[in-house]
Amino acid sequence: MTRFRFLPIVLLALSVSAQSPDFRADAIRAHIRFLSSDLLEGRGPGTRGDELTRAYIASQFEAMGLAPAGDNGTYMQNVSLLGVATIPEKSALAFAKNGKNVIGPMKYLDEFVGGDQRQVEASPIDSEVIFVGHGVIAPEYKWDDYKGIDTRGKTLVMLVDDPPANEKEPDLFKGRARTYYGRWTYKFETGTAKGAQAVILIHTTDAAGYGWPVVRNSWSGETSYVRLAPGASALSFAGWISEDVAKKLFAAAGQNLDALTKAAASRDFKPVSLGMRLTGNIASTLRAFDTANVVAKLEGSDPKLKDEAVLYSAHHDHLGIGQPDEDDPTDRIYNGAIDNASGSATVLEIARVWSETKPRPRRSILFALVAAEEQGLLGSRWLAEHPIVPNGKISLAINLDALDLFGQVKSVTMIGVEKMTFFPTAQTVTKAMNLDIVPDQSPEQGSYYRSDHFSLAKAGVPAFSIKQGQEGVEEKVKRYREKDYHQPSDEFNPNWDFSAAVQIAQLAWRFGWEAANADALVNWKAGEEFAAARAASQK
User: Model's pTM, two decimal places?
Assistant: First the structure.
């Protein structure tokens, strides 16, 4: 049995027992091995593997003696979803001019991917194609890519990233960092709000931050949605086209993609009609199903503060069974060992340590292994909208997503923590652990807006994810992102360094101890992005 003990440190709040908690690397290893096994079939939401995953997590919480925090006295917080899967052989899209196809019908998965967000079995599509640059409306930057154009019933083609910074405005859209305006979710949300029939994103590896195989694999199976309210608007098609198809489309329209991309980098950009129509039909299978967030609680010791909480989260789902691995055509199971069996396993070990910690913290500790993150943060969105403890009483939320198990590090990234009143504490604790806090190492990825903490932050909760630094393991991290991320090859490796997860567990536990025992709740600093939501949640 391998154990790792804290180095001596002076805690900022109460003193823990003389015996500092031990974290077990072998326990984390065992959890990851099971959660990423073929038996669980990739943990796709609403599947047999999903049920097994949730049952395993709940049994672990019960064995630790943690109280159930879900529905009707159980560990399950039910999340009702609708699965929509595009039927390739019954779906066809083409770009047409003067009634004739210029491009297409396009080949699904190779040239385009996506689906129908109207949650119906079939949607005919026939609409004018307009290029809207980056598709961004950002008053704080005096930016509007739509310039008052009527987009109702149109197909909007757009770039997938933020408008780029320039020499005169190096901090435009936070410079190199990806903002929420650059996320595909924002593009689809805005197109929906503008009444478009379809939104199509142009994929490039540089702009998206990942290659076409990641897009293909992520969209090749079933996509889950929260059911639409009656009368709600939605896109008949939301998807991507490859860069090669995009270049052909713009050329056929008498335009140049590179030239229009350059033009779209200016506030003066105006939407451009391509003189084309998107035509075709999207056919889908629909499947109503339930999944669940698996939630547990350790009650705090203070009679008043126990109604407040610190929250630990990680997502338990992955992509299920999908397209075969490029290097092994027989492998179609997306095991998701790093993404995110690693985070789930580490939260389980943190939960075990908390269950044995004496004395108990003043505030309560919540554990939420959430569902359907890969489908668009749906489980954490449900949690934020149906909180176990009111969002205004959650002092701090710490999320773990896709830990790098390549060796212990000397630095960590915690995007957003510098915007909280908790930041001085975070600095003190990391320093005591001989760790440096470093800025986002891949800001162009827009990491803050891609993981479950974001759902909670939007509800006002001070929330962030802990990510390891990359010193000494840069090549291994790069290889994972290029070869294994969202691929069947993201499989358990017994040679991984599980002490790396222990290191993050130690840090996350210490942060939780400080926040759970502090006199005051953590808050966003005045004027920060989510400060208004925090204030609203505490009224």
Answer: 0.84
The span from the first CA to the last CA of the chain, in angstroms, equals 49
Cβ 499 vs Cβ 406: under 8 Å: no
Q: Which residues of 320-345 are buried (b: 16+ CB within 10 A; e: fewer)?
A: bbbbebeeeeebebbbbbbbbbbbbb
Delimit the CATH 3.50.30.30 region(s) of the chain: 84-286
CB proximity list for 379: less than 8 A, separation 6 or greater: 79, 291, 293, 315, 317, 370, 371, 372, 373, 452
Round to whole Å and give the CA distance between 534 and 45. Answer: 30
Burial 188-205 (b: 16+ CB within 10 A, else e): bebbbebebbbbbbbbbe
Neighbouring C-alpha atoms within 13 Å toward the C-beta of 88: 13
Cis amide linkage into residue 213, ω under 30° from 0: no
Would you state the structure tokens that stand for residue 421, as one six-digit string? 């009143």
Q: Whole-angstrom Cα distance, residue 297 to residue 351?
A: 9
Give Cβ neighbours of residue 246 (< 8 Å, ≥ 6 apart).
157, 202, 203, 257
Q: Which pair of tokens denotes residue 303?
A: 């009679």
- The CATH number of 84-286 is 3.50.30.30
CATH 3.40.630.10 placement within the chain: 22-82+288-537
Residue 324's alpha-carbon distances to 85, 221, 389, in angstroms, are 17, 12, 42
Which amino acid, 204? T
Q: From residue 115, give the alpha-carbon distance in Å to each of 10, 158, 198, 334, 442.
A: 53, 17, 10, 20, 29
Give the separation between CA 45 and CA 81, rounded to whole angstroms. Answer: 9
| Cα angle, residue 417 at apex, residues 22 and 163 outer, rounded to 5° | 135
Looking at domain 22-82+288-537, its CATH class is alpha beta
Q: What pLDDT tens digit does each residue of the chain (539 aa) get?
A: 444 444 333 444 444 333 458 999 999 999 999 999 999 999 999 999 999 999 999 999 999 999 999 999 999 999 999 999 999 999 999 999 999 999 999 999 999 999 999 999 999 999 999 999 999 999 999 999 999 899 999 999 999 999 999 888 998 998 888 888 999 999 999 999 999 999 999 999 988 888 999 899 888 888 999 889 888 999 999 999 999 999 999 999 999 999 999 999 999 999 999 999 999 999 999 999 999 999 999 999 999 999 999 999 999 999 999 888 888 899 999 999 999 999 999 999 999 999 999 999 999 999 999 999 999 899 999 999 999 999 999 999 999 999 999 999 899 999 899 999 999 999 999 999 999 999 887 777 777 888 999 999 999 999 999 999 888 888 999 899 889 999 999 999 999 999 999 999 999 999 999 999 999 999 999 999 899 999 999 98
The CA distance from 312 to 401, in Å, is 11
Q: In the Cβ-directed half-sphere of 118, how many Cα atoms lie within 13 Å?
A: 21
